Amino acid sequence: MRFIELQIKGFGKFHDRTITFEDGLNVVYGKNEAGKSTIHTFIQGMLFGIQPQRGKASRNDLYNKYEPWENSGTYEGALRLEHGGHIYRIERTFQKTRKELRLIDETLGKSLSPDKALMDQLLCGLSETAYNNTISIGQLKCATDAGMVTELKNYIANMNTTGNMALNITKATDHLKSQKKQLEAQLVPEAARSYTSLLGEIKTLEREISSPEYENKLPDYQQMRAGARSDIEKKQAEKESLLQKVARGRQVLNQNQFTDIRSIKEYQDKTQAVYKDYQETKASLEKKSRQAFRIGTFVLATLFLACGTYFYFLKEWNPITDILLDYHVDFPPAAVFAVMAALSAFLYSAGALSVWKGKRLKKELALSAQVLEESFSRHLADKTISQQAMDAFLARMAEFQRLSAAMDKSEENISHLTSDISALQEKQNNCSEIIEKQQKLQWELEKKLELLSNYKTQMDVLRRTLAENDRISQEIAAIDLARDTMTELSASIRDSFGLYLNKTASELIAGITGGIYTSMSIDENLNAFMNTPTKLVPLGQVSSGTMDQIYLALRLSAAKLIQSECEEQMPLIFDDSFVLYDEDRLRSALKWLAAAYPGQIIIFTCHQREAQMLTANQIPYTLITI
Predict the structure, then answer these.
(1) Alpha helix stretches (DSSP H) within 286-332
(2) Which of 511, 549, 620 is nearest to 137 (CA)?
(3) Helices within 210-287 (DSSP H only)
(4) Interacting residues of 124 by C-beta distance below 8 A, sequence separation 6+
(5) CA–CA–CA angle 233, 238, 243 (5° rounding)
(6) Is pLDDT above 80 for 49?
(7) How far is the CA of 506 from the CAs of 112, 293, 469, 502, 545, in angstroms?
(8) Fewer Cβ atoms within 10 Å of its own Cβ: the N or the C terminal residue of the chain?
(9) pTM score of the predicted model
(10) What b/e string do you get for 119-133 counting C-beta neighbours within 10 Å, with b at 16 or more?
């Protein structure tokens, strides 16, 4: 594998910066604070990601340390690398709210799923911890006392057991004990019970919320109430219009002294009867026979009275007497006079009665005419009594009857409208009551939903707590397993260590020390010795420079062992690792590295001597200045 290019959109001090690497040895030169460690950390972040810490630990973690100085929204970048004949591009976004990982095979021109198996293949199975303790090398230690020897013994032992040189068996055991106590203190034993109880509360609340009574019918009833209000307004307007019409109609009827259709008919019938009487009376008065009868009765009555008087007082010269005597009829004059007077009185009485009846008829005719004139004058504005006037009067009465009937119909409609308005008002009031209840139910529902939301938030917290408990429990189990494994493997290290030393570390040590030391040995007490042709030299007796070289050799041996099954080894990265080397040792180390490590090598340095020595020794390299 080799790194081709870094594309830094935003990381620490860098923005929109591209850095290209070549095969073989690359020297990245920059003064102090130029950003070498930033680039080194960017490579690690592109390979393994950067996880922000929680709590106080987040103040100094890598995530916050390397947030972009400008525009934190560009906390991202890409790494292009070659592996297995394909060029891949790893793209990462580090933002807390938008973490993304994308893997593109540029050779095939397609996006790949960055699952663990594929990433392990690209990274040769290295974990981030193994990466930091093998191929990613910081400043080498320059130990000059027994502490360095003890550290080396622990590195060697751990290389034999765990493949991780960063561990110290003794310190690791103590650290694991401390970690276990800390993890146990972080456990929340009440979380499971609280989670179960809260889950029951949530189920109860969800059942209550799903109840039909909480169905939101508020819009329906609000629409129904608005419809009822609108109908009330329309019917009220219709009622007001009818009331005005009825008032005007009643005013017309009242002005004509009518109360209802019955009073109109009675008045019409009465007027018709009066008119009939008027016509009959007038016809009776206008009869000539009545006048002739009256005159005839008076004439006859006078004639009979005159004849009786004449006969009574002139009986001797009365021709009638002579005639009667001729026929031998003898009436006493007084009797004749009495008869004649009686007939005369009767005829006078009949004539007088006829005169009295005539006067009475005239009086009745005058009264009927007065009534008719009053009626016609009131309704027709004309006192003339005629059949045409009577027909007009009847037409007028028909209009009044139609008006009265219309008033009755309108009043009936008003009554119906009043009933409808009352029913609508009751419906509106019922809707208002239901809306009030619905609002109360919706308020209760909102409170229950708010409570449910709070419960679910607590559930999320408890779920994370339970997950954390599981994680902590797994870590505690892993710690126990690690302690047991370290105890078992440490006991067997004496039997297996020599094989590793002879095959891997010894070859590297011989190369880096220029053949001064060809191998390393460990006694049963884990004391390290350097092998020479004449004797075993205890590690504590070698120089500090030699210790640094041994340290580097052990790191490289660890890197080789870990990547032994990989077809391509990952690039070897040094970050100011040779700052304590003198020139001779640096020259030896550079020559040795160029020959010993077949893969790509990247050296970050703040000095120019590395490049000068490589040039002087004609060792091919690429210089990158930042």
Answers:
(1) 288-313, 319-326
(2) 549
(3) 218-255, 261-285
(4) 1, 562, 563, 566, 568, 569, 570
(5) 120
(6) yes
(7) 41, 182, 45, 5, 17
(8) C
(9) 0.47
(10) eeebbbebeeebbbb
